[in-house]
Amino acid sequence: MENGIIRVGLIGAGANTRLRHIPGLREQEGVEIVAVANRSRASGEAIASEYEIPTVYDNWLELMEADDIDAICIGTWPYMHRTMVLAALENDKHVLTEARMAMDAQEAHEMLDASRLFPHLVTQIVPAPATLQVDQTIQDLIAEGYLGQLLALNLRVSDGHGRADRSDTFINTEAPLHWRQNRQLSGYNIMGMGIWYESLMRYVGPATKVMAMTRVFTNQRKDEDGVLRGITVPDHVNVICEFAAGVQADLTWSTVTGLQTGAELWIFGRDGTIRVEGPPFDKVFVGKNGDKELKEHPIADDKRGKWRVEQDFIESIRGAPVTLTPFDVGVQYMEFTEAVTRSAQSGQAIYLPL
Amino acid sequence: MASEGIRLGLIGAGKNTRDRHIPGFQDVDGVEIAAVANRSRASSQVVADQFNISAVYENWQELLEDPSIDAVCIGTWPYMHRTLTLAALEAGKHVLCEARMAATAQEAQEMLDASRQRPDLVSQIVPSPLTFKIDRLLQRKISEGYIGDIIGVSVQSLGNAFMEQGGPMHWRNDRDLSGYNILNMGIWYEAMIRWVGRATKVTAMTSINVNSRKEENGEVVDVSIPDHVSVIAELANGAMANMQFSAVTGLSSGNGVWIYGSEGTLHVDGAQNVYGGQRGDDKLQEINNPEEGRAYWRVEEEFCNAIRGQEKITRTPFEVGLHYMEFTEAVTRSAQTGQTVALPL
């Protein structure tokens, strides 16, 4: 840091980096985006000229070694997160890494361990953003005892990955291979499972026992070179699990359930029920014993969370604690993610923590 | 006895027997409800008086020993179904047994084996009536290829009331009387078999939230039958299923079925309206379900026709009862062990 200016380098500048992180960082006072390293020099230069970033590096190692960079924003696919986070810390740089934290639980643990070796550096994961508007309200309702003892939770996510319309939600064997379907790039991550579990943890804490069944219905896709590749990342996932808080949960994720879109979350307690659906997840419906039906629960403006990842990162570098999302929470969702795969592979309940 | 009269005896005359079976049999020509044996002589007499039944027996053994009885309708709780069915078949009587077929899969297997020893006698389980309204429509749509290959099935049977600790003990909460049967899981699975076939692998978690209840005499007793059940399964047809049964989900969305295919989706809401949509559609639309095409309650007629050699039992033969009892037991075993259980057992 020079004269209080935080100098940020970007490694990997995909859609989320360009749409979210670059504008978000630019809004902060005393922050400069000084360098970028993307998959190729050419793509790095394209980003640099579009966003007026002064330096382009040939590769991420060169950027990592630059003395005039204080903090790194990692926007690559999950397969590089661990390697890059460890290198960033060793090079004395704060690090914000894109979600999903890592390929598997082991990598996430290594990242957490490394972060503890460098307590003066900020380590942050981009948080689950879908439910930011309602998180505080749900947390408050539960903490105030609106639900009473927590009993059950249902979550259905029909994950369209930005598909244009509902007719696109059927199984699609023509679509190209996406990095999310490539286990070499995504590890144990499946659809939006990890970030949804991160949201659930905000309400009911971590799970202790996981049983899962998964299936790859679209089991071949063409890669960039037109080569047909087998797919091992599931597109249909059923999970049942127990949470430490005593909740039994039914969780489903699918990209092949035609004409079903969005997500729906129910939390059932002894005395009350909460329902949220979306996108946008901007309303909370509640009901108590004695009510005839659920009704909308008003949310005060100051209770509505919003996207403030870059602001959080910069404020943390200046001394505030990381709230969304610290590495130890990332480890929990990566453990859950890995437990789902292990249970589906073995036909056995997997107990958490791993 | 081809089309001669059928003399029927009732063993156990609970609510479903009085509301359904007795009126049902009274509607079939040539059937006489000739005898009844309920839990006590007094309770039998009440039923006999109400429905003009001539003979009241002290107990079920006496009823089965009456050579003039051709067929029995077993309306007891599940714990007696195996014993009564085997005794009835041994006594040479046709059997209509109330659902849930038995307390365990083993008992169901024994009942099926016994029925095969007596091919001359009719053996029938009271079918799951929950979905008569929609069964044929779903079967037709699926067999016509409306949804293509079946990918996923979702069944929710969720109560709408909040849990209440210490309520009255019901036989459905009593494992000694109900065995592995939980909530209405078995009969929903029976319905699901009609649409999409059987499961080959079952993974389940269960919980007991209302863990104590009061007997009629006020005594507080523990409950060992779950009131919240989560099941995920693989089906023989290659689809994945998730099923949920609960009595603790206050203000829930109730009952619902989703059947997802490669080319289309079918949805049944809580009022059993059926909606469908195919690739290219932008939303689900209600599918007309004319009343004349629907299945309906004809259990007693089917039983009597089968006795007279006029039809084969389709709703529900013992084989299918065994299927749902195996599923039911697999759910408990998986929940107990934390392991996926393969079917058939």
From TrEMBL, chain A:
Residue ranges of every copy of the GFO/IDH/MocA-like oxidoreductase domain listed in the record: 136-275
Keywords: Oxidoreductase
Entries under InterPro entries matching the protein: Gfo/Idh/MocA-like_OxRdtase_N (IPR000683), Gfo/Idh/MocA_oxidrdct_glycsds (IPR050463), GFO_IDH_MocA-like_dom (IPR055170), NAD(P)-bd_dom_sf (IPR036291)
Span of domain Gfo/Idh/MocA-like oxidoreductase N-terminal: 6-114
A GO molecular-function descriptor: oxidoreductase activity
Alphabetical list of PANTHER family matching this protein: BCDNA.GH03377
Name under which the protein is recorded: Gfo/Idh/MocA-like oxidoreductase N-terminal domain-containing protein
Native organism: marine metagenome
Automatic annotation (TrEMBL), chain B:
Sequence ranges assigned to domain GFO/IDH/MocA-like oxidoreductase in this UniProt record: 138-266
A molecular function GO annotation: oxidoreductase activity
InterPro entries listed in its UniProt record: Gfo/Idh/MocA-like_OxRdtase_N (IPR000683), Gfo/Idh/MocA_oxidrdct_glycsds (IPR050463), GFO_IDH_MocA-like_dom (IPR055170), NAD(P)-bd_dom_sf (IPR036291)
Keywords: Oxidoreductase
Coiled coil stretches, renumbered: none
Signal peptide: none
Entry keyword annotation includes Oxidoreductase: yes
Pfam families: GFO_IDH_MocA, GFO_IDH_MocA_C3
Keyword Cytoplasm (UniProt): no
The protein's name: Gfo/Idh/MocA-like oxidoreductase N-terminal domain-containing protein
Organism of origin: marine metagenome
